[in-house]
Amino acid sequence: MARFSGKSIIVTGAGSGIGRAAALLFASEGGSVIVADLADTVHETAAMIDAAGGTARAIQIDAGFEADVIRAVNVACESYGGLDVMFANAGISGGMANIFDTDVALITEVLRVNLIGPYLAIKHAAPKIAERGGGAIVLTASVAGIRSGAGSPAYSASKAGVINLAMVSAQQLSGSNVRVNAICPGLTETGMTKPTFDYAREAGKMEKVGRLNPLRRGAQPEELAKVAAFLASDDASYVNGQAIAVDGGLSSSHPVTRQEYGKTAV
Ligand SMILES: NC(=O)c1ccc[n+]([C@@H]2O[C@H](COP(=O)([O-])OP(=O)(O)OC[C@H]3O[C@@H](n4cnc5c(N)ncnc54)[C@H](O)[C@@H]3O)[C@@H](O)[C@H]2O)c1
């Protein structure tokens, strides 16, 4: 039996990158998916799922706006009879402004989308998921939320908040059988990072992308989608309140000179 057969699933940020890859994967494994995004590219995602023989419905929402999140949950319940999985994945980078170049408007917007969005997703999805006897909420955080060095102060703080939100909400949902976990992607080739990957490709410097992690490459969105799907599925039935780094090993070390495979340590 497919892992998501009979499951009703919402994916935010499904118009591109990790969200689109996850929506395609959920649908390919039998899930009925509400693909939600601010951008109209979300209709392409639904069409891709449709073409592959899956079930999807596209809605355009602002994932950081409460009435829109409520609407997405209602659409899922009306379309598919309830809700089993919420993948709160929509996010923005907000650019690379340092602390002094970040104004209050910028940090407010980054926190609104990246942190308040997942908070609203939990608040409105969890009761519906609990009504079905349980299920899963997966949040997209980032390696930037684990420690410094992978994003602006606003972005990093927002993602650190997402990691904590997974822990706190897993605790506060005690007894509901609703699990909450987060994924922490490292550098992944998506709409958000397109300029980095495009520049490296054009300059013939792809070997430099992701070179700081021991796998020495960036990720493809499907590699993140697989982990999100694992956490959303019953395969992860005893994984709760965790933030799983999916970063090629980047966050497993302090910045030190690495010992090379096959070479003697000096
Ligand atoms: N790409 C990376 O290297 C990387 C690394 C760590 C974390 N992440 C996180 O992964 C998640 C997915 O991003 P991605 O890398 O796939 O980038 P992406 O830009 O390809 O996709 C993000 C999607 O979110 C949508 N979105 C933005 N604001 C929204 C809003 N207010 N409401 C609804 N939708 C909105 C965008 O339209 C876009 O379709 C984000 O939370 C991002 O912070 C990405």
From TrEMBL:
Pfam families: adh_short_C2. Keywords: Oxidoreductase. The keyword Oxidoreductase applies. Belongs to the short-chain dehydrogenases/reductases (SDR) family. PANTHER family: 3-OXOACYL-(ACYL-CARRIER-PROTEIN) REDUCTASE (AFU_ORTHOLOGUE AFUA_6G11210), SHORT-CHAIN DEHYDROGENASE_REDUCTASE FAMILY PROTEIN. This is Oxidoreductase.
